[in-house]
Description:
Layout: H1 2-6, H2 10-64, E1 98-99, E2 109-111, E3 120-123, E4 126-129, E5 135-140, E6 151-162, E7 168-173, E8 176-184, E9 189-193, E10 207-208, E11 217-223, E12 227-233, E13 235-237, H3 245-258, H4 265-275, H5 279-282, E14 289-291, E15 295-301, E16 321-325, E17 327-338
Amino acid sequence: MYNLINTVPSSSVARINSIYLQEMKTTLSLSFIGMGVLCLAGCEQFRQFQLDERNKNAKGYKELGLFNQDPNALANLPKVEIAPKAPKVHATNKVGWIPLFNGKDLTGWEETDYAGRGKVAVKSGELHIENGLVITGVNFTNKTILPKTNYEITYQAKKVNGSDFFALLTFPVGEKHASFVTGGWGGAVTGVSSINSMDASENNTTIYLKYNKDQWYTFRLRVTPENLSVWMNPKEHLIPLNATVASIVKAYVEEAAKAGQKLTPKLAEAILRKLNPELDANIPARDTIYFPGEAQIIDENIEDKVVEMRPGEIELSAPLGFATFQSYGVIRNVRLRKLPPAPAKKTPEKK
């Protein structure tokens, strides 16, 4: 067979191939035409079926008389009052405060085992931490409710006597702990110990505040994975040069007005004198005075920083505790609330 094909001239083979291809094209064309005719026929039958069904339905509707109603029939229908739809109430993400001190006894707390500690007592809803030889304090015992991050703690404190910290708070920061110092190193240093092995007296949180005796201060501390912040109420007010009592009172009245509070000069002066018993002496000396209201005193980014306690006996205050150093401090209204985690940061797209 192979030899027979090879004996056919090449021109004849080419002609045979050409005829074969032409016949194939003709066959395919006829096939497509046939399929098209069948499709058109089927579509026409389906369209006729739809028309027949529609006519049947139209006849049925006509027999029901739905299109022959009295034009005044709608006016005679009874009126139906439709109550307005109540607005949708969205649930709010309110995070409640949890009291940590009941004001009656030391339930949930215990005296910290400091050597030479002073007396600890609960009086009139307040926690009194009296002078010791060095450090005196209390620890919170219910560790199960303590978060490690994303939380706030608020408390009120006042100094009765002494010349050092009167309301130091030790608190969790992730897997470690730190201390917020109030009036350390002689009575004025305020800050957090320790950040990158530096104490509250030598890192970015260091500030110097004057704490008056027998005056209540409210502190609010917030811990997140990225930030450590503290607010204080009342807030410090710097005395400008050549200030007088009248000018300071005027400044406070104007500040209160911005916050929506209207005060007479007489009432404003009474409030300032209660916060600043030595106001007349403070002003010419350009000493620290306080205005009512909360102000942020610490705002520290702690990402990529080592936050931990100062080595020493103060570590006994962990995970949560209050302490004084050769001072008499009073604590009340200790509360905690957990905060929702911050939204995850979006990773920038690579270009």
